[in-house]
Amino acid sequence: MKSVEVVAAIIIKDEKILAVQTGKAKYDYVSYKWEFPGGKVEAGETLEQAIAREILEELHIRIIPKELIITVEHTYPDFHLIMHCFICQYDRGDIQLTEHIRLEWLDKSKLKALDWAEADKPVVNVL
């Protein structure tokens, strides 16, 4: 089974956390689910470099990675995911969605109301 290593950003701004919703995906079980934004780690990158690059590419904003809070390993039917999740401070820029269909800034208490991707659920529980 293919293993994929990714980073995810828990972006905090004004005491709210950013959640983004995927559109139609290659696999139905991750389509239209909510997630923390991020992406694959490229060769030679640190995790912090990867998360800053991915967020700039996906959302067109700059963030400051602060702390690795959890690494989640989850096996989906078609691949194994290793996801390093960082608390990140929103730095600057206006969000432009390039890979997602919606976004929400939520209080921690409202996070569980969304339909999260399975790999993101442990992150929500930690928060």
A few lines on this structure:
By secondary structure, the chain is mainly β.
Question: What do you see in this structure?
Answer:
With 127 residues, the chain is mainly beta. The protein is built from two helices and seven strands; from the N terminus they run ββββαβββα. Strands 1, 2, 3, 4, 5, 6 and 7 form a seven-stranded mixed sheet that branches. A hairpin with a 2-residue loop joins β1 and β2 (16-22). The longest helix has 13 residues, at 47-59. The chain is globular and about 40 Å long. It starts with a strand and ends with a helix. The model has no long low-confidence stretch (mean pLDDT 95).
Question: What structural keywords apply?
Answer:
127 residues; mainly beta; seven-stranded mixed beta sheet; 2 helices; 7 strands
Helix content: 10-25%
Could you tell me how far the N terminus lies from the C terminus, measured between alpha carbons in angstroms? 30 Å
The arrangement of helices and strands along the chain is EEEEHEEEH
Number of strands: 7
Secondary structure tally, helices: 2
In this structure, how is the largest beta sheet organized? 7 strands, mixed
Looking at the structure, what is the overall shape?
Answer: globular
